[in-house]
Design a protein that fits this description.
Layout (H helix, E strand, L loop, with lengths): L1 E3 H6 L1 H8 L4 E5 L2 E6 L2 H28 L10 H12 L9
Parallel strand pairs: 1-2
Antiparallel strand pairs: 2-3
């Protein structure tokens, strides 16, 4: 059922009673702006959403552990220095030689 904001103000108690049976859509200029649901409906759907979000987070964390980025912290100092100097040396687009 859909009801305007003005009508919902006038009929709040009956709207709450209807929301115990099914969600009630509140509109403003024929566009949905809110939904009134029972506390039981809300609690059930909120628990499901949190469980799904936690499950997704756990999956992402598992992928991050499985495919951890490789870094060069284990390289010896000579290789690390060679990489830095190669990066810093001049090229055809710079004035450095």
């Amino acid at each position: 059922m859909s009801i305007s904001i003005a009508q919902s103000r006038q009929q709040l108690s009956s709207l709450i009673a209807l929301a115990q049976q099914q969600p009630q859509v509140i509109t403003n200029r024929n566009k949905p702006v809110a939904v009134l649901v029972s506390a039981e409906y809300f609690a059930g759907h909120q628990a499901i959403a949190q469980t799904e979000a936690q499950s997704f987070f756990d999956r992402v964390q598992g992928l991050r552990k499985k495919f951890a980025p490789q870094d060069d912290t284990g390289l010896d100092a000579a290789v690390s220095t060679a990489r830095q100097t190669a990066w810093q040396r001049g090229n055809a687009f710079s004035d450095k030689v």
